[in-house]
Amino acid sequence: MKNNTLNKHERLKSRKAIEVLMREADSFYIFPIRVLYRFHKDESTEPLKICVSVSKRRFKHAVDRNRIKRLMREAWRTNKLILTDELRSRSKQLDVMLIYTSKEIEDFKKVDKKTILVLNRLIEIVQQTEM
Fold first, then answer.
1. Full-model pTM
2. Neighbouring-strand partners of residue 5
């Protein structure tokens, strides 16, 4: 299996799982991305699952919301390997939700740079957390 993919097993899709994440998650903020994360024990083989969200209130047109989600998923897909390796080495599982909060559509370079900062912060959290 290729490491630089974002297949359906790596996505957080279950309504129940998303509700639990929203209710029990810890969070931090790196403009323009708010990050909700939750460690859990599950029989799933994937150490990292992600969900991306863009507010309908800020972006009325679905075209704009979909573009932003595409940018965020691509930035995540290309850079997630460092976090995935860290989780595997520590036998931890993490659910993550990325919420886009800016009022403008940022270019890919900025989204990519901020996603790398998010991943580095998550790695610090994984290293500090004992389960």
1. 0.93
2. none
Instruction: State both tokens at 94.
Output: 């993490």
Token readout for 62 is 């679905």
Q: Does domain 8-126 have CATH number 3.30.230.10?
A: yes
Cβ-Cβ contacts under 8 Å for 101 (sequence gap 6 or more): 29, 31, 32, 33, 34, 55, 58
The residue whose two tokens read 């630089």 is 4
Look at the block and give the residue holding tokens 């323009």. 32
To which H or E segment does residue 121 belong?
A: helix 108-128
Tokens at 40, concatenated: 């859990």
- Write out pLDDT tens, residues 51-80: 999 999 999 999 999 999 999 999 999 999
| Position 131, amino acid | M
Measured CA to CA, the distance from residue 45 to residue 68 in angstroms comes to 28
Three-class DSSP category at 38: strand
